[in-house]
């Protein structure tokens, strides 16, 4: 019950934590994308945003030395999905990638 309440408190303060910023940028994964289709990789970098119910979009940011994608996560305000998607498109365009 305390953990659930703590998560709710964090959600209530998330918008204030973003301040005047439209979105937050963070790594999408702990390493390069895995080869093949058997796994999507480690979800550790997404757990927090899922807990907060914040919209997030992973965009390709670069390629690893092995040629695998390295992603960047665009995280928005809770309930602000449209702006998050628009910002993700902008970031992807600036990086020369297509989300």
Mean pLDDT: 90
Radius of gyration: 15 Å
Order of adjacent strands in the largest pleated sheet:
1-3-2
End-to-end separation:
38 Å
The largest sheet, given as strand count, sense and whether it forms a barrel, is: 3 strands, antiparallel
Q: Rough shape?
A: flat
What does this structure look like?
Helix content is 38%, strand content 19%. The protein has 99 residues and is of the alpha+beta class. The chain has one domain (2-95). A 3-stranded antiparallel β-sheet has the order 1-3-2. A hairpin with a 5-residue loop joins β2 and β3. The longest helix is centred in the first third of the chain and has 17 residues, at 2-18. The protein is flat. It starts with a helix and ends with a helix.
Task: Briefly characterize the structure.
This protein is an alpha+beta fold and 99 residues long. The chain has 3 helices and 3 strands. A 3-stranded antiparallel sheet has the order 1-3-2.
Write the layout of secondary structure elements.
Blueprint: H1 2-18, E1 24-27, H2 47-52, E2 56-63, E3 69-75, H3 81-95
Antiparallel strand pairs: 1-3, 2-3
Can you tag this structure with a few keywords?
3 strands; 99 residues; flat; alpha+beta
């Amino acid at each position: 019950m305390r953990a659930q309440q703590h998560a709710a408190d964090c959600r209530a303060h998330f918008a204030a934590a973003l301040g005047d910023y439209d979105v937050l940028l963070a790594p999408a994964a702990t390493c390069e994308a895995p080869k093949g289709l058997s796994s999507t990789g480690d979800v550790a970098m997404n757990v927090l945003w899922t807990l907060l119910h914040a919209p997030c979009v992973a965009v390709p940011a670069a390629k690893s030395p092995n040629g695998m994608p390295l992603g960047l996560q665009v995280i928005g305000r809770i309930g602000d999905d449209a702006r998050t998607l628009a910002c993700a498109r902008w970031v992807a365009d600036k990086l020369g990638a297509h989300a």
